[in-house]
Amino acid sequence: MGPAVDPDAGADAVVGPRAPNVPILAKPPIKNKTFPNKRGPPSLPKDGNISDTVGRKKQVQEVVQDEEGEEVDKEKKIVSWRGALIEADQATEPPPSTNEKEAAAPPAPANPGDPVPPEVSTGAVDRLEAVRDAFRHAWKGYKEYAWGHDELKPISRSFGEWFGLGLTLIDSLDTMWILGLKEEFAEAKDWVEKELSFDKNVDVNLFETTIRILGGLLSTYHLTGDQLFLEKAKDLGSRLMPAFKTPSKIPFSDVNIGKGIAHPPRWTSDSTLAEVTSIQLEFRELSRLTQEPQYQEAVNEVMRLVHKLPGKRDGLVPMFINTNSGQFTHKGVFTLGARADSYYEYLLKQWIQGGKAEDDLLEDYLQAVEGVKKHLVRQTGPSRLTFVGELSHSRFNPKMDHLVCFLPGTLALGAHNGLPGDHMDLAVQLMETCHQMYQQMETGLSPEIVHFSMQASDGPNLIVKPADRHNLLRPETVESLFYMYRFTKDPKYRDWGWDILLSFNNYTKVPGGGYTSINNVRDPVNPGPRDKMESFFLGETLKYLYLLFSDDTELLSLDKYIFNTEAHALPIWPSPPK
Ligand code: DMJ
């Protein structure tokens, strides 16, 4: 998962103080007045699709109040909010959907500090339609300002290029199909057919291109049966293969898909461990579909090498591996976060994909979960929240990336597939912690990294350092909520996901189209928009929210499909005839 040249870290690096008059979010959220440092406990409904209750309505109401809180100077076409000057939205918003209309609520109090007026029943809110609305809004921005480019910059109404391959468009294809957004899908398909070319002199990151583009094309092929997507996947897959031509057969991080030349990053001959071990689901599937074994052979070889490599600790792996020697480097540092995370995820998922026949994968996965329990799982002092920390040369660091919130879902998936029941117990506990990482923030959105207090005290469980307060619209928590709901049917998981969607709408939705990453989840007054919508917000976050709220468990049944680490669905292989 964590990329060699981390785009997320890159985003961190480029964000400076906001320049004067750079627009900020035009929907100022209402601050929680009763609990300044903690969002109130949700009082939420039992059914994900139909009913609504007081607690949830209160949040919906805030969205509307926010809009009404703006002062609009029509002559100057300027929206003024808390001293910030914002260009009025030029684009015409579509009429509100039924869902938005239903969210209508009593007016905001006249004076700050006045009690919020009593809530009035607003009827049902259709959560699935709310996700579609969010997707349409995100897509509107992408279509208007970034069409065919990698990423939308929704505040400056422009785009950013990473590989120049229409990353967001391809990452979104299967989400549109699943959400039933036919017109949007047709337009995007047309672009893939007419404009998408991999014959380009461009360096791409093997991992990111595999999980987002190859995975997206393969998943869309399976959902639609349209050969176009398989043809594109084959073309891309073959262009990525030079990455595996290294002395050790551990692939380089980067490959020029036009020239067919691969190389490591400029500063090292190491590759990131998660990157070289989280491309297997996609390449294995490409071999199965094309009947060309070279893809599967290349990625299986990586797994074989890592399986027998010294330097693990009870199944936990270091974060780097050298492409010349094939050995782990930077040994002694163990994390389930950036640079190692999806190694663990893909052990289990490859085992499931291949019909539970590859024992080495299962053995490595089971051992790793024991290693996690032994070395990394701890509880906080104040209220015994379970978390996964990091180990650095035998020193425990109570730090957890939001990325680690993929783990409850993966553990639950393993338990569903017959692995020990205590994996599910751990999943339940970690899910609660990931939920708290959102709920305890003033915006209701998780920071990128949290630290946990291990002192027995009345103090806070979670500590957020200033450098870690950003939120990149990441999917891991809603991904795990989806798995947890599918396997337990406990409605609280839907309610937690609904709260997250409302918070995204409150604090990251940009007028005119798009959602933006933000700098500070602790500051609801100025969350600090970063002007970037990551492709995984459409590829993963909104898809998992939709699947979480859908009652149709046959919609991508977890007994028939496996999701890659970018939420692209690939079939579990049929068992060979006995
Ligand atoms: C996505 O690209 C994938 O989920 C990856 O595994 C981790 N990083 C982002 C989402 O956070």
Give the percentage of residues in beta strands. 5-15%
Outline the biggest β-sheet: 3 strands, antiparallel
Number of strands: 21
Rough outline: globular
| Strand order, largest beta sheet | 1-2-3
N- and C-termini, Cα separation: 36 Å
- What small molecules accompany the polymer chains? 1-deoxymannojirimycin
Rg measurement, Å: 23 Å
- Overall pLDDT score: 84
Number of helices: 18
* Unreliable segments of 5+ consecutive residues: 1-24, 26-98, 100-122
Helix fraction, binned, reads 40-55%
Global structural class: alpha+beta
Brief overview, please?
Helix content is 42%, strand content 11%. With 578 residues, it is of the alpha+beta class.
Q: How would you describe what is shown here?
A:
With 578 residues, this protein is of the alpha+beta class. A hairpin with a 5-residue loop joins β10 and β11. It has helices at residues 7-14, 54-68, 98-102, 127-145, 167-179, 182-194, 206-224, 227-240, 273-276, 280-290, 294-307, 341-353, 359-376, 407-416, 421-439, 476-488, 491-507, 535-549, and strands at residues 71-73, 78-81, 84-87, 151-153, 158-160, 203-205, 254-256, 261-263, 270-272, 320-322, 328-329, 333-334, 377-379, 386-388, 390-392, 395-397, 399-401, 449-452, 462-463, 561-563, 569-571. The strands form 8 sheets. The chain has a 3-stranded antiparallel β-sheet with strand order 1-2-3, with no helix packed on it. Bound molecules: 1-deoxymannojirimycin. 1-deoxymannojirimycin is lined by residues 1, 342, 403, 474-475, 536, 540, 565-566.
